[in-house]
Amino acid sequence: MSKNMINLEEFKAILDEKLAPLKSEISEVKAKSEEMRAFLDMANEKYDEIITKLAQRDAEMKDIKTENKILKATIQTMDDQVRQLTDSVNDLEQYSRRECLEIQGIPLKNIDDTNSIVVNVGELMGINIKEEDISLG
After folding, report:
1. Residue 118 · residue 132 · CB < 8 Å
2. How many CB atoms lie within 10 A of CB 6?
3. What integer pLDDT is reported at residue 137 of this predicted model?
């Protein structure tokens, strides 16, 4: 054998020695790659979880908005009813007082005809009151 000739075993040993740093780097890259894959899997899982929760919140928000519209309409209806009832009560109170006029300060001497007293008081005030304008009792 010549001096430049090396046997197969020696060649493998030299090759292993030269490739050892490269193998080490490849192992580190594989480990980092596996860590990155695990992180990406976890991030994707969290992302999917967030998307699901966001969809649920959107559905809840839509339901709340619908309920809010219904409640606003109900409040408006009730407000209109209260306003209408208040007006009706006011009208009824006005109607119940339509014939309520009390005249004071007239002496109670032999008063037989109160209607004539009301007509006379009206004339003194400049108001034309007729007998038929006076209700009985």
Report:
1. no
2. 13
3. 59
